[in-house]
């Protein structure tokens, strides 16, 4: 079979080297004679794996010592509920900035759990000269006592990314499901970062939470124990049986990231990949991006064909050329190429070649 490049938004492609290693050791992990899926999460071998995973993630993201790293269940949406349950007891209030579909889903969940009166929201995307652009209000001017401000720095469906940090008087909670580990960030600017694993980390279901320890003193709502950050901290993310195979794969992805040069190297590669793809979209009249240049996601490149009648043909021919999962999200239509850390530059080059040829043939 010739090379397939998988542009799926998630679950997304994982690094080939990781998949091959997992395949090799599937039936006999670490000389145990059994699979990593078949051993106790409390065995010393598995605990060693989790300690190394955490240590590697701490190095990769330069996570300060006053932050806990948790490996939890429930993916990204699980965290939509967890942050509310963990921080909004006593009628505490929170502010949600909405920059696309996922931050919209997060605020709806928060309203459901904490009540609409306790949740404020501000839409931060404007249409300027026909392009969607993020305009963040001056948060320091808002005279309110919020427990936190929540936002999504990379909107997977809309292809909108926010590169600047918020200037916030309250702890910042960020849903980094689709851009964690894609570029260097200053973790100390955040109160809590969470991410569903299925884009830049590993299989779906797992979520990573990085939380500053003082936030855990805030009053919490009654909640299920597996959503409780304090219990997760106390039990080293093993209050109940964790998703061990996903954790193992995440550990392998972290090792792979270190071996290829860490997040700084990834960021350079991601900048180059995005640059080549957006250049193709901008240079050919055949394609259009609806997002302003400064907010174009490096991970999820959304674009439309100027003649949408050709969408089906584009997708079919791309698929035949080994370029799969380019259809935009059902809510927004058009195309989306997700180019996470595991997508090699050759994948992007193959897509650019295909798009250029398709435009020439169908002009
Ligand atoms: N947040 C973002 C930014 C996402 O992209 C996704 C999933 N694509 C989610 C949350 C929800 O994740 P999950 O399906 O794991 O609940």
TrEMBL record:
Gene Ontology CC: cytoplasm
Keyword terms of this UniProt record: Amino-acid biosynthesis, Aminotransferase, Cytoplasm, Pyridoxal phosphate, Pyridoxine biosynthesis, Serine biosynthesis, Transferase
Positions where N6-(pyridoxal phosphate)lysine occurs in the chain: 199
Alphabetized GO MF terms: O-phospho-L-serine:2-oxoglutarate aminotransferase activity; pyridoxal phosphate binding
Compartments (UniProt record): Cytoplasm
Entry-linked SUPFAM superfamilies: PLP-dependent transferases
Gene3D superfamilies in the record: Aspartate Aminotransferase, domain 1, Type I PLP-dependent aspartate aminotransferase-like (Major domain)
One of the GO BP terms on file: pyridoxine biosynthetic process
Reactions that this protein is recorded to catalyse: 4-(phosphooxy)-L-threonine + 2-oxoglutarate = (R)-3-hydroxy-2-oxo-4-phosphooxybutanoate + L-glutamate; O-phospho-L-serine + 2-oxoglutarate = 3-phosphooxypyruvate + L-glutamate
Stored Pfam families: Aminotran_5 (PF00266)
Cofactor: record remark: Binds 1 pyridoxal phosphate per subunit.
Amino-acid positions noted as binding L-glutamate in the UniProt annotation, renumbered to this chain: 42
Main location: cytoplasm
Enzyme Commission designation: 2.6.1.52
Sequence ranges assigned to domain Aminotransferase class V in this UniProt record: 4-351
Annotated NCBIfam families: PRK05355.1 (NF003764), serC_1 (TIGR01364)
Family stated for the protein in its record: Belongs to the class-V pyridoxal-phosphate-dependent aminotransferase family. SerC subfamily.
Quaternary organization: Homodimer.
Function: Catalyzes the reversible conversion of 3-phosphohydroxypyruvate to phosphoserine and of 3-hydroxy-2-oxo-4-phosphonooxybutanoate to phosphohydroxythreonine.
Protein name: Phosphoserine aminotransferase
Organism lineage: Bacteria, Pseudomonadati, Pseudomonadota, Gammaproteobacteria, Alteromonadales
Gene for this chain: serC
């Amino acid at each position: 079979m010739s090379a397939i490049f998988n542009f799926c938004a998630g679950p997304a492609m994982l690094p080939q080297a990781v998949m091959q290693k997992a395949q090799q050791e599937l039936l006999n992990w670490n000389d145990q004679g059994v699979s990593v899926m078949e051993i106790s999460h409390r065995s010393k071998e598995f605990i060693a794996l989790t300690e190394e995973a955490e240590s590697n993630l701490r190095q990769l993201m330069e996570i300060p010592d006053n932050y806990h790293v948790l490996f939890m269940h429930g993916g990204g949406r699980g965290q939509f509920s967890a942050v509310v349950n963990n921080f909004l007891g006593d009628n505490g209030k929170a502010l949600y900035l909405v920059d696309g579909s996922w931050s919209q889903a997060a605020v709806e969940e928060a309203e459901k759990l904490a009540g609409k009166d306790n949740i404020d929201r501000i839409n931060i995307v404007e249409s300027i000269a026909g392009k969607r652009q993020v305009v963040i209000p001056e948060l320091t001017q808002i005279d309110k006592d919020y427990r936190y401000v929540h936002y999504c720095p990379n909107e997977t469906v809309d292809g909108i990314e926010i590169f600047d940090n918020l200037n916030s008087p309250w702890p910042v909670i960020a849903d980094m499901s689709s851009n964690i580990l894609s570029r260097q960030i200053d973790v100390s600017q955040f109160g809590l970062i969470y991410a569903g694993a299925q884009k830049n980390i590993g299989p779906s279901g797992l979520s990573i939470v990085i939380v500053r320890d003082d936030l855990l003193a805030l009053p919490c709502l009654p909640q299920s124990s597996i959503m409780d950050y304090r219990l997760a901290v106390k039990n080293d993310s093993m209050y109940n049986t964790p998703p061990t195979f996903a954790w193992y794969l995440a550990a392998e992805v972290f090792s792979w990231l270190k071996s290829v040069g860490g997040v700084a190297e990834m960021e350079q590669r991601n900048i180059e990949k995005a640059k080549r793809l957006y250049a193709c979209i901008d240079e050919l009249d055949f394609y259009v991006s609806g997002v302003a240049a400064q907010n174009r996601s490096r991970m999820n490149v959304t674009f439309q064909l100027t003649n949408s009648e050709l969408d089906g043909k584009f997708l079919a021919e791309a698929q035949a050329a080994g370029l799969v999962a380019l259809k935009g999200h059902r809510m927004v239509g058009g195309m989306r190429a997700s180019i996470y850390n595991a997508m090699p530059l050759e994948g992007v080059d193959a897509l650019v070649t295909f798009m250029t040829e398709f435009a020439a043939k169908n002009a």
